[in-house]
Amino acid sequence: MLQSKLPDVGTTIFTRMSALANEQQALNLSQGFPDFQAPQALRTALAHHALEGHNQYAPMTGLPALREAIANQLARHRGVRCDPETEITVVPGATEAIFCAITACVRPGDEVILLDPCYDSYRPAVILAGGVPVHVPLGAAAFAPDWERIESAISARTRLLVLNSPHNPTGAVMSRDDLLQLQRLVTRHGLLVVSDEVYEYLVFDGRGHHSALQFEGLRSRCFAVFSFGKTFGVTGWKTGYCVAPPELTAELRKVHQYVCFVAVTPVQQALADFMSREPDYPLGLAASYQHKRDLFCAALANSRFHLQPSAGSYFQLLDYSAISASVDTVLCEQWTREVGVASIPVSVFYQQPPPQRLLRFCFAKQDAQLLRAAERLCRI
Ligand SMILES: Cc1ncc(COP(=O)(O)O)c(C=O)c1O
């Protein structure tokens, strides 16, 4: 009847592992979402705006008050000035913005560089646009980009490079030098960039986040994508934004208006209220998530796992090579059933997984849950 355009795609691992965790009543450290509540004032504001009757379509580009609040936040925290009219678009989740950006600029046969391991939505978006994903592995040491290798993967057909820092699934954070290297490379080869910065505030150990928007040569050719779901702990609200120069924003909006058209109105109002009342709320996130990372890692000190504390995001990788030679996809299901802790196998983020033994655990969980999970993992 229908020849699939995505023959290799099934239900995502996140859906499958969360379902298995529920079925087995395992501690769910697989899917990336907090198990604690978002700020009360934010949730109250949503209820207030819905009850006040703000329940019809917002403007296609996003509520002006929210775009204004985003521009203020970018100026305050990143030193970046943006025009909310022509450069900021509110979207129903970062995933939609990534899809729209890729759809807007990739033509059939265009090559798109993806750095493996990478978030699972990039590749299908490239394929649906008729593009060719070119997967380049991140370096074996600390998952840093190997810029020489990336440059050697660039051809005359390369159109776009997708970047993600802080990084899912590894927690790696790109340095200022990485962004300078990227800037040199995309300028030299005339490439566009999608910079997925959804974990921008979750950078630990006193390191800061470097946004592509802070580098003039990147900013002029970049769609930078952010998620309120991650910053405010409301992944179920599926709201984010994309910052791009006016010409790129115009093209993004042409797609966005026919994919989802708008993001949810009372959610946008609640976010605008909260951001104008508490503009520095995101600055407290690094300390509270670092506490969770440290708690989880310290509780695993006597386990047989090897780990390097995550530099950013809310994911911690555990290396189980001293425990088992099984492939991660099998082991992760087995341990969900037998140990009662669900995780995500890192191999699913690769086109060609290397011979490594890594599982990803989300530490955006209540302290007691993290301690219970670590205790179970220490028994292995
Ligand atoms: C790297 C990365 N990008 C994008 C997203 C999606 O964000 P949103 O829920 O706002 O679509 C996620 C969510 O897990 C992610 O990890």
Describe the structure in brief.
The protein is of the alpha/beta class and 380 residues long. It has helices spanning 13-24, 40-51, 64-78, 94-105, 122-128, 147-152, 176-189, 216-219, 228-231, 246-259, 265-277, 285-299, 328-338, 367-378, and strands spanning 27-28, 88-91, 111-116, 132-137, 158-164, 192-196, 222-227, 240-243, 315-319, 341-342, 344-345, 358-362. Helix 3 (64-78) runs parallel beside helix 11 (265-277) and helix 4 (94-105) packs across helix 10.
Strand content: 5-15%
Helix content: 25-40%
Extract low-pLDDT stretches. Answer: none
Rg of Cα set: 20 Å
Description:
The chain contains 14 helices and twelve strands. A seven-stranded mixed beta sheet has the order 2-8-7-6-5-3-4, sandwiched between helices. A three-stranded antiparallel beta sheet has the order 9-12-11. It has a two-stranded parallel sheet with strand order 1-10. It has 380 residues and is of the alpha/beta class. The longest helix is centred in the N-terminal third of the chain and has 15 residues. The model has no long low-confidence stretch (mean pLDDT 97). It is 40% helix and 14% strand. The structure holds pyridoxal-5'-phosphate. Pyridoxal-5'-phosphate binds next to α4.
Topology readout:
Elements (H helix, E strand, L loop, with lengths): L12 H12 L2 E2 L11 H12 L12 H15 L9 E4 L2 H12 L5 E6 L5 H7 L3 E6 L9 H6 L5 E7 L11 H14 L2 E5 L19 H4 L2 E6 H4 L8 E4 L2 H14 L5 H13 L7 H15 L15 E5 L8 H11 L2 E2 L1 E2 L12 E5 L4 H12 L2
Parallel strand pairs: 1-10, 3-4, 3-5, 5-6, 6-7
Antiparallel strand pairs: 2-8, 7-8, 9-12, 11-12
Helix pairs in contact: 2-11, 3-11, 4-5, 4-10, 12-14
